[in-house]
Design a protein that fits this description.
The longest helix has 21 residues. By secondary structure, the chain is α+β, with helices and mostly antiparallel strands. It is about 35% helix and about 25% strand. The protein is globular. It contains 12 helices and 16 strands. A hairpin with a 4-residue loop joins strand 5 and strand 6. The N terminus is likely disordered. Helix 3 runs parallel beside helix 4, helix 6 crosses helix 7 and helix 8 packs across helix 10.
Length: about 425
């Protein structure tokens, strides 16, 4: 037998953690493999089909768009998870075509995609979930999908997370991945999204994996908490997609079991992963030049703080002022006023960075140069205290630039 160095257990654990950290996103947890291939869905010839596979059955939780117009993969995955949330083995994701507003034919194409993937992997069709992103109203070119699946299935590797994350991109300028590994379990994720981002459940497409062992009911509870504190706190342009999906798969390969006593700690780590991914989405928004954190405090209830914060985050006038570096505090106060919350202007206070620009229903005696400087960097901080309670929230958003119009004015062409 070869000589095995007498390494203390804690050092061995550290080495294993570092090894897993070297994997990209979704393949950092044990027992997950992935790949990304080009099957001709994108005119550029870039990677456009991602496959994520677990070596063993996974518990799975999912959250989906609340848009009443839902893409075929959303309908399919909802139905699949309602019947099987304990034995998922794979997720297949295509970019370049949303398979939305395609009727019964589109749903049939989704089923065929799951069937073909299952056959290639040697698993059951109900163990495969499907995600799509791209242009609405176009049928999937199934001959290309079939060829892509045949190409991808034998290529899934523990090191394949990088290619998978690139294959799901549309107008994204870079892949979005993140993972946290500790001595008990790992959680890793990838997501895509740069426009049509305004969540009311999650947003965009995201696959998150963990090697913890956890029941589907607890997994679902953890995902809802994490999403509410991360993906539900971002907005790029106020548009909600037909395809928004986030899936969380847990295969138990670490041997660490998460029960009622451990669910709080697990949820905290999951929230960190989701928050990092969510902020990456905002920073890579279409035409974005500024990352903006908006904190609304002093609300009667958290729900009121959320409504005010999102009203500000989605205001085109606020976002264009931020792009121009114009400390136009009136637009922020105005957006709070039409949020539907019974705000009281005389009690409100507003800061750009550390500059108090509005209080007691009127502008303060602030230095215009200081307020402009507070908006000049790539990271901008805005705080509005409503002065009516103790509840607060935060959202992450961005500015609105000329490039956003250019990108979306020619999206299909």
């Amino acid at each position: 037998m070869p000589n095995v160095p007498n390494v203390p257990m804690n050092q061995m654990e550290k080495s294993e953690i570092e090894n897993r950290k070297s994997k990209i996103g979704i393949t950092a947890p044990r027992g997950f493999r992935a790949t990304g291939v080009a099957c001709g869905l994108k005119k550029t010839g870039a990677l456009d089909l991602a496959l994520v596979v677990s070596d063993r059955d996974c518990a799975c939780a999912g959250m989906f768009t609340t848009n009443r117009v839902q893409a075929a993969p959303v309908v399919y995955d909802r139905a699949t998870l309602a019947q099987n949330n304990r034995a998922i083995r794979a997720v297949i994701v295509n970019s370049g075509c949303a398979n939305a507003c395609t009727g019964d034919d589109g749903l049939a194409d989704t089923r065929v995609t799951a069937d073909e993937t299952a056959r290639a992997l040697g698993v059951r069709a109900e163990q495969v979930l499907v995600m799509s992103t791209g242009v609405i109203g176009q049928r999937l070119p199934m001959e290309k999908i079939r060829a892509g699946i045949a190409q991808a299935a034998p290529r899934v590797l523990p090191e394949g997370g990088a290619d998978a994350s690139r294959a799901i991109m549309t107008t994204d300028t870079r892949p979005k991945v993140f993972a946290i590994c500790n001595s008990q379990f790992a959680i890793g994720g990838m997501c895509k999204g740069a426009g049509m981002i305004h969540p009311n459940m999650a947003t965009m497409l995201s696959v998150i994996t963990t090697d913890a062992k956890i029941a589907p009911e607890l997994l679902d509870r953890a995902l809802r908490v994490a999403v509410n504190q991360s993906f539900n706190c971002i907005s790029i342009d106020g548009d909600m997609s037909t395809n928004d999906t986030v899936l969380l798969l847990a295969n138990g390969a670490s041997g660490t079991e998460i029960g009622e006593l451990e669910i709080g700690d697990f949820t905290a780590v999951l929230t960190q992963v989701c928050t990092n991914l969510a902020q990456q989405l905002v920073r890579d928004g279409e035409g974005v030049t500024k990352f903006v954190e908006i904190v609304v405090s002093g609300a009667r209830e958290e729900s009121e703080a959320v409504r005010v914060a999102k009203s500000i985050a989605n205001s085109p006038l606020v976002k264009t002022a931020l792009y121009g570096g114009d400390a136009n505090w009136g637009r922020v106060v105005c957006a709070a006023g039409y949020s539907g919350v019974a705000v009281e202007p005389a009690k409100m206070k507003l800061w750009f960075g550390d500059v108090n620009v509005f209080a007691n229903g009127m502008p303060t005696n602030f230095d215009e140069a200081d307020s402009t400087r507070a908006l000049s960097g790539k990271d901008v901080f805005i705080r509005l205290d409503l002065g009516t309670g103790s509840a607060q929230t935060k959202v992450w958003t961005c500015d609105l630039s000329h490039d956003y119009v250019t990108i979306n004015g020619k999206y299909r062409t």
